[in-house]
Design a protein that fits this description.
The complex is a heterodimer of chains A (534) and B (391). Helices cover 66% and strands 6% of the residues of chain A. Chain A has 21 helices and seven strands. Chain A has three domains: 110 residues, no CATH class; 84 residues, no CATH class; 216 residues, no CATH class. Chain B contains 15 helices and four strands. Chain B has a two-stranded antiparallel sheet with strand order 1-4. In chain B, strands 2-3 form a two-stranded antiparallel sheet. The longest helix of chain B has 40 residues. Chain B is globular, with a radius of gyration of 25 Å. Classes of the chains: A alpha+beta (534), B mainly alpha (391). Chain B: GO terms for molecular function: branched-chain amino acid transmembrane transporter activity.
Chain lengths: 534, 391
């Protein structure tokens, strides 16, 4: 009696369902699953999907999860949820509850991986018609990932109705991918291969998977497409490596550029340079702490505020070091090295005593986080800004050196101190300011490096050797040399990394620099003339 | 001829220093082994181990002084030679463990078993033999110094550039030794030593002998260094330090002179490392850290570069200070060390011994001048009379 009532309700419901359905009624197709073997089930899934009825999506999902059952009494098919010791049956099309039954009253419809694949493809096809643009896009993507001949008609149907250009393009690709495994004509397939060759890595997988079964006359086209994808991939890889290299190079440039002034122009071996970078990073931390506690709304501006703070703090420290220690040691470069090393130990320990030995948390402002895709590669915002930032600093510095009166004085003092002094330039003052400028720029570098590195008292230590390498490699006393040196070392490092690993790559770069210095003891762009022997 | 060479080396101060070192080599182990633990004269084993360590550092500082103080090459990579010597000794000690390791493998050290290596890499061959290992203690650092110096001195890389690339050298070696695939124990280095030449490394007697050996080797190296610096070659060496171009124009092959000194110095450093490892019981890549090498420079600078005794005194003083500070006020050690760097370069550029020597010489010169003045006054009067008489 109860059963008959159910059948009745069921009939009514299924009648109602038909009225919504775009194609034929999916309900009987579901019911046929009860007796079907795996192959038949696969066909049925295709047919269910072909109805284009979006209401079957949950039931198909349930099927692939293994939650589809048929009732032993009437072979009606339901998806089911566990409800206590019983199962709650749910109509596959309407999604309405059909009462609870004992577990013994139903039989699970078996599912295997082939079938799951078919279901996934079918689901992809179904959501192609969804009114939601995002859903359509992801449906096209799903087909791209697991193409099947069954999806082809669905895609074509969807294509005919599609109006959005982006979605349409994606669907064209999905169509091409599905077409390859269907039984369409050779010409259509040739056109499809053409489309797929623009797809990159995803297309490569599809082409490789059909290369065994495809018609022989298409083989040359296929190989050409595969080759062109491979080429494109290699190019993108190259571009990506160059980008990573530039990114590392810009970090090196940031770390080295202050040193290019103190060591390169003034000839002071400033071993405390790394600590200036560290002080800059701690200034950023300090500024952010103040902002967090007092004006959280300004957080996105924290770096902009930290820049002048870091410049002033480290510039001042540099000024004090020059007046207090270094000015007694001009003309004795090796002693300067030792004294500044002492300064660096003191600064490290001072920071450790004040802030503690652990890493400090420095946040990224919102415009520094995230990434965007560019062709076949991903570009993170913080790396991009650091490249922009390092180049900006470089050119600003170049401007100060070449175009301002102060820069002129500075160059005069470094080229011929006594002559400059005779011309009325206050050389001690210029020395102090130049050292302060170099230190200040190291501090600014610290602000940027705080975004990508751990801010700890040891921060500077990890940059000092690299910075010296860059300056020496590029050529002492030449800012352009520092730029070229930093970028080429960065790129070289990143190109060595994939083949030999990060650490060995770094070792190789160091060895190469050591060998390079034997060949050109004055670096890439050596200063010519008498200044060399000074 | 060689005895003459050495006898010439043994001038006053060096004789005293060698005598003191030999006395220490006998007295300290004797006071450690033969006196009762509660006796006032007893030297506890840990103090002896600490002093042994200082002696190794002193030898390292002496090695640096030979190239820096006498030849003007400021090497910031001497820690690398020290560590290489240490690794050579460590490899010998590793092979002596045999099947007593955690994994009980008779052929492979524990870390190789752990890395799933099946056989001994070729560069470990022969390290089970003591003479071979000892030869390597000299050869490996010497060879590295030779190759490095060959390239660097030939292309006339000098001054700060040389300092910076020696620093890069030790940094690259540090990175390399940190890698597990290198086959030197990676991060953990070599440790857990059992015995040396059949004697237990930890036993009191072995420690005493190792201590005595450190003092004796330091004395020996001091004699060799003194022989080098007091010879004619030593004069040229100082010439290279003070005016390299002039020495070159006089017809000397400056690069060969530098290379010889650099290699000898690297070997000294290797010996220091080899003596250091069994006394502290571990060698790891941290020894290659550039900071360590720079610290050696300050020991030498504090003691006085260009004096052979100075670096020995400097190394012992600074390290004793370090032991005291890191125990008593760990926060302040780096302040003290940093301050020391600055103070020495600003106020004591000749170091302790150099300053004393300078003062001594100045007083002597003053006295001599005063004496000469007197003599001339006394002698000048009659000559004047004679001159008048002649007129």
């Amino acid at each position: 009696m109860l059963i008959r009532l159910f059948t009745l309700i069921f009939l009514v419901l299924s009648f109602a369902a038909t009225s919504f359905a775009q194609g034929s009624d999916p309900k009987p197709l579901f019911d046929q699953l009860a007796d079907a073997n795996f192959n038949q089930a696969e066909t049925l899934v295709g047919q269910i999907a072909a109805t284009g009825d979006p209401r079957v999506v949950p039931a198909l999902n349930a099927f692939s999860e293994g939650d589809l059952y048929f009732r032993k009494s009437d072979k009606a098919v339901f998806s089911a949820k566990v409800a206590g010791s019983q199962l709650e049956l749910i109509d596959p099309v309407t999604g309405e509850s059909a009462g609870q039954v004992a577990k013994g009253a139903v039989t699970k419809i078996k599912v295997n991986n082939n079938l799951r694949r078919a279901i996934r493809a079918a689901l992809g096809g179904l959501t192609l018609m969804s009114p939601d643009r995002g859903a359509r896009l992801s449906a096209a993507d799903a087909i791209l990932r697991s193409p099947s001949a069954e999806a082809l008609e669905l895609v074509e149907a969807a294509l005919a109705k599609e109006t959005d250009a982006d979605v349409k393009a994606r669907m064209e690709e999905a169509r091409a991918v599905s077409l390859l495994s269907s039984d369409r004509s050779i010409d259509e397939k040739r056109a499809a291969i053409e489309t797929i060759s623009g797809l990159g890595a995803a297309g490569l997988g599809v082409l490789n998977s059909v290369s065994g079964t495809i018609d022989h006359s298409l083989k040359p086209d296929l190989d050409k497409a595969i080759a062109s994808i491979r080429n494109a991939q290699q190019l993108w890889n190259l571009a990506q490596n160059v980008w990573y290299g530039m990114s590392l190079g810009s970090v090196l440039l940031l770390a080295a550029i202050g040193l290019a002034i103190t060591f390169g122009v003034m000839g002071i071996i400033n071993m405390a340079h790394g600590e200036m970078v560290m002080l800059g990073a701690y200034s950023t931390f300090f500024v952010q702490e103040v902002i967090r506690n007092n004006a959280p709304g300004l957080f996105d501006w924290s770096l902009a505020i930290a820049l002048p703070v870091a410049f002033l703090v480290t510039g001042l420290v540099g000024f004090v070091i020059e007046r207090g220690v270094i000015r007694f040691l001009y003309g004795r470069p090796l002693e300067t090295l030792l004294a500044t090393w002492g300064v660096s130990l003191i600064l490290q320990q001072a920071i450790r005593t004040i802030f503690g030995p652990t890493n400090q948390e420095v946040g990224n402002p919102s415009w520094m986080s995230g990434s965007f895709p560019l062709g076949g590669m991903t570009i993170t915002y913080n790396r991009m800004w650091i490249i922009v930032f390092s180049l900006t600093i470089f050119f600003a510095l170049l401007f100060v050196m070449k175009k301002t009166a102060y820069g002129l004085n500075m160059r005069a003092v470094t080229q011929n101190r006594r002559m400059a002094s005779s011309m009325g330039i206050r050389t001690p003052w210029v020395d102090a300011l130049t050292f302060a400028l170099g230190s200040g720029i190291a501090g600014i570098a610290g602000v940027a490096l705080s975004q990508i590195d751990n801010v700890s008292p040891n921060l500077g230590q990890s940059y000092i050797i690299d910075s010296f390498m860059v300056v020496v490699f590029g050529g002492v006393g030449n800012l352009w040399g520092t730029l070229v040196g930093a970028l080429s070392l960065g790129i070289l490092n990143k190109f060595l990394e994939p083949s030999v690993g990060a650490v060995l790559g770094k070792i190789l770069v160091l060895v190469l620099i050591i060998l390079f210095i034997q060949k050109r003891p004055r670096g890439l762009f050596a200063l010519k003339g008498r200044a060399v022997e000074a | 001829m060689i005895t003459g060479f050495i006898l010439r080396a043994l001038e006053g101060k060096i004789v005293v220093a060698v005598g003191i070192l030999l006395a220490v080599a006998i007295l300290v182990p004797a006071l450690n082994l033969l006196t009762a633990p509660d006796s006032a004269l007893h030297i506890p084993t840990y103090v002896m181990a600490l002093m042994g360590k200082y002696l190794c550092y002193a030898l390292l500082a002496l090695a640096l002084d030979l190239v820096w103080g006498y030849c003007g090459i400021l090497s910031l990579g001497h820690g690398a030679f020290f560590a290489l010597g240490g690794y050579a000794m460590g490899m010998y000690l590793m092979r002596q463990i045999g099947s007593r390791g955690v994994y009980g493998n008779p052929d492979l050290p524990d870390f190789m078993v752990f890395l799933n290596w099946k056989e001994l890499p070729w560069f470990w061959y022969g390290f089970d033999m003591f003479p071979f290992a000892m030869a390597m203690v000299l050869i490996v650092p010497g060879l590295l110094a030779f190759v490095f110096g060959w390239f660097a001195f030939r292309s006339r890389v000098n001054g700060v550039y040389l300092s910076i690339i020696t620093q890069a050298m030790t940094y690259a070696l540090m990175l390399a030794f940190f890698r597990n695939d290198m086959g030197f124990g990676g991060n953990n280095g070599l440790t857990d030593f059992k015995d040396i030449l059949g004697f237990q490394v930890q036993a009191g007697g072995t420690r005493a002998v190792l201590f005595a050996m450190s003092a004796i080797m330091l004395a020996l190296c001091l004699i060799v260094a003194s022989a080098i610096t007091c010879s004619k070659f030593g004069k040229v060496l100082v010439g290279v330090r003070d005016a390299e171009s002039r020495v070159r124009f006089l017809g000397f092959r400056v690069e060969n002179i530098k290379l010889f000194t650099f290699v000898v110095s690297a070997m000294f450093a290797g010996i220091a490392g080899a003596l250091f490892v069994p006394q502290v019981g571990i060698i790891n890549p941290g020894e290659f850290a550039p900071a360590n090498s720079i610290e050696v420079v300050v020991w030498t600078a504090v003691g006085g570069r260009g004096t052979l005794i100075g670096p020995i005194i400097g190394a012992i003083l600074v390290n004793a200070g370090k032991s005291y500070f890191t125990g008593a006020f760990p926060e302040f050690w780096l302040f003290a060390l940093g301050g020391l760097f600055i103070a020495v370069t600003l106020f004591l550029p000749k170091g302790i011994v150099g300053t004393i020597q300078h003062g001594w010489n100045a007083r002597k010169a003053l006295k001599a001048a005063a004496a000469a003045e007197k003599g001339r006054d006394a002698g000048a009067a009659p000559t004047a009379q004679q001159a008048q008489a002649a007129e």
